[in-house]
Design a protein that fits this description.
By secondary structure, this protein is mostly beta strands. The protein has helices at 2-25, 199-206; strands at 28-31, 44-52, 60-65, 76-81, 87-91, 99-101, 103-108, 112-113, 121-123, 133-135, 139-141, 146-149, 156-159, 167-170, 174-181, 187-197, 215-217, 224-228, 235-240, 246-252, 256-260, 267-275, 278-287.
Length: 289
Amino acid sequence: MKRFVCNTIFISLLIHCNEVALKAQNLTITTEDIISNSTCSGQFLFVTYSTTGNFGWSAQFRAELSNNLGFFTNPITIGSSNFNVGIIPAQIPLNVGLGIYRIRVVSENPYVVGTPSPTPLVISNIPQATQIIVFPDDTVCYGDSIRLMVAPVFSQVEWSTGNLGNTIYVHSSGIYSVETTDIAGCKGYDTVKVHFLPCSSVANRHLQHETKTSSVFPNPAKDKLYIKTPVSTSFQIILTDFNGRILMKTAGNSGFLDLDIEHLEAGCYFLNLQAHEITPEMVRFCKIH
């Protein structure tokens, strides 16, 4: 009797597994054409697909990006959805290289690999880095103003305030963001938070300036280099090559300076920043054509 029961259970499980396998064979995912007007990394897009068969409520779907030759050797997940709705919001990573990519949709529970997109996604432009420069500081007294700016290398700049242009002045605490578009049509984004406080609070915060460091932007740069230092008085900049040869000396005031480097050969250099308020710093940057 026990043998009969065990054989019956085994046969039932075998039939069930065969039914599941048969159903899985009927499940398909077809990734549709990728529609994109951009050739830039970092872009947002929608991946559309269609399915056949019953995937069930537990199925999850993700969009995968191939390598720059179109192969899915080590695919990158660029978007996902917990529902089988035929569309997945996705973003191409900023750090992908130039190349010809394909996208496919893959499901889990059950695991089904979809067909690659019929049309490739061509990435031929890398966006210019977008960084908001805050001057004189992200925390100032009530009644003062803070200048927010981005390097003048973009064809269009739009701030969250609705203002257009490389520079805006703000007078109230909050989070400010910017969207940039470069000459290739690639978009970039950045966000900063600023504070306006009673002057006594600002003075206490500014005691921390000794630990702050200087920054240069953009890096690498083509013709202009923007230097921001945590000092409120004059400072000196000494530019040297890798052999220590001095190529330029200049001075700035109030912690901000734009430096013309158009005449430099392509390569990497050092900026030596000296001021009474901070320990001398050495900052490396690279010049490109």
